[in-house]
Specification:
single chain; Rossmann fold; 6-stranded parallel beta sheet; two-stranded parallel sheet; 12 strands
């Protein structure tokens, strides 16, 4: 199976390349994509900043390019996997089922939802699978501008011995999933013929407070609480917990 992985130099991309050592890597700006001999595309590449306010840029790279790549795959009936995001559910969501109403809270989430809608709007002749990532953490994450709390707190503990935590962080709970689990779900879905949108999470919600204090306990670091910046309060997700029923049912199927 010849696999093309876009965004292969990113956090999840590097882990995906390690899992598929013979895969072909592609980054934005590399030129035209050659799909000759490719049997599956794992499309991870995107502007991933949730604070990007340049819609023209997001539309060009996250939306238009994704649609063009999907259309090219459709012409050749190439299995297509797309990295979406749980951010499409919105800031105040309490239920996280794939069929729930979504309310993207920022332009990044809007760009991911636009591709989802394109996927849902057509009948494809090959598997087309969009994965809504929850809070992924793990190896190769250190370079990210917006790393997971696991990586950020571990970095702070190592560098300064002080973990900085927003006040009331015991109230902020997210679904954290190790990147190895994400990669394994992709691999298993490459053997599945079902198309659609699928959650990729742990199905559990853990508070930032618990993550910080767990790392502090293992490293001897202190935890310092600080106020959340005013510009973050309106768009900060307080709770995520993936409904994994649909995803797990596909993984358990004999297809």
């Amino acid at each position: 199976m010849a696999i093309l992985i876009t965004g292969h130099k990113g956090f999840i991309g590097q882990n995906m390349m390690a899992a598929f050592p013979d895969a072909i890597g592609y980054e934005w700006g590399d030129g035209d994509i050659c799909l000759d001999g490719v049997t599956a595309v794992i499309h991870l590449g995107a502007i991933s900043s949730t604070t990007c306010n340049d819609w023209s840029l997001l539309k060009r790279q996250n939306v238009d390019f994704s649609k063009q790549l999907l259309d090219a795959c459709a012409e050749r009936k190439i299995h297509f996997q797309f990295a979406s995001s749980a951010s499409v559910y919105g800031v105040d969501a309490q239920s996280f089922c794939e069929d729930d109403t979504v309310r993207p809270a920022n332009l990044y989430a809007k760009s991911k939802r636009a591709v989802e809608e394109y996927i849902l709007g057509k009948d494809w002749l090959m598997p087309v699978q969009a994965f809504r990532y929850f809070n992924v953490h793990g190896k190769y994450e250190d370079h990210k501008d917006q790393p997971s709390p696991h990586s950020l707190f571990a970095r702070q503990a190592k560098q300064s011995g002080v973990i900085t935590l927003f006040e009331k962080s015991q109230e902020y709970k997210r679904d954290f999933i190790p990147v190895d689990n994400v990669v394994n779900i992709h691999k298993k879905f490459l053997q599945k013929s079902e198309s659609g949108i699928f959650n990729v999470g742990s199905g559990k919600a853990t508070s930032f407070h618990d993550v910080a204090h767990s790392i502090a306990s293992s490293t001897g670091a202190m935890v310092k609480e600080v106020p959340m910046p005013n510009n973050m309060t309106k768009t900060y997700q307080k709770f995520t917990k993936a409904d994994m029923v649909k995803t797990n049912s596909i993984l358990a199927s004999g297809d």
